[in-house]
Amino acid sequence: MPDNTFPVKIEQDGDTHTLSITVGQIEQRTEPDGFGGTRAGLEARFDLLAPGAEKPVVFFLSRLTGEPEWIIDAKFGPNGFPYFSHGFGSRVTVAKTVIPEIADLLDDVARGCGIVRHIGRGVPLNLSS
User: How far apart are CA 25 and CA 31, in angstroms?
Assistant: First the structure.
């Protein structure tokens, strides 16, 4: 995979901050849902390096077919400590989403990989097959 490190500018409390986001993977995934069906969608990983930080925070996300947002499945601190970790596409807890600027970046990378028909802010995910 080519270098997938991107600067992402965010506004917070009237200040602009630039985060360094390294997208490690975005791929289609299908697995049993435990209730006799399957869940299908996209699985993504990215590292977020905040200004002044030495090591990144690592996120694992999913966006299931028909969902309009990326959901954080797992988050690991710079020292590898898990803040929380749920399985791919788990929706049994309160869903946490990424900020819109990062979601837009992930949508763009997924489009560039050719694995989606429709994706975007508030747009239900439709896989390319």
Answer: 18
